[in-house]
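Methods, example record. To illustrate the input and output format used throughout this study, we show the complete record for Fe2OG dioxygenase domain-containing protein. The sequence lines were provided to the predictor; the line carrying structure tokens was produced by it.
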Amino acid sequence: MAVNCYPACPEPEITLGMPPHSDFGSLTILLQSSQGLQIMDSNKNWISVPYIEGALIVQLGDQVEVMSNGIYKSVIHRVTVNKDYKRLSFASLHSLPLHKRISPAPELVGNNAPAYGEFSFNDFLDYISSNDCVQQRFIDTLKKSNS
Ligand SMILES: O=C(O)CCC(=O)C(=O)O
Ligand SMILES: [Fe+2]
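The corresponding predicted structure is encoded as:
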């Protein structure tokens, strides 16, 4: 579980509360205290997720994208800030075990080559400790050129 706190910001137009990313795990279940979450659509436009009191937002993560061989995409999202009030979010992050090696399900690959390479949580940790994750997401490093 991650609890995120975004203080009110005097110049919200020149910063972000959280930069664009997709979550590493399989599923994220999120509760937000006010609007701020944005998701990227297929045309690369940012769409604000409406605030509905008490609603839980479910997002797919990178593990589902890889296991489904790209049939389901992980959600690229970011968080904006505002100048009037503090925002909180509670993210319940669901992931396969840390040592588990994850790869596209053969049933979904069919006769084609898999679109993603295999990875584990350790590979992900190595990547985020030595790379700029805003420039390139970890999942992009797993994509095969045939995808
Ligand atoms: O604050 C939010 O709405 C999103 C938080 C988030 O993306 C995360 O914890 O990974
Ligand atoms: Fe996230």
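Annotations derived from this record:
Residues 21, 23, 77 surround fe (ii) ion (ligand 2) (CB under 6 Å).
Residues 2-142 form a domain with the Jelly Rolls fold (CATH 2.60.120.330).
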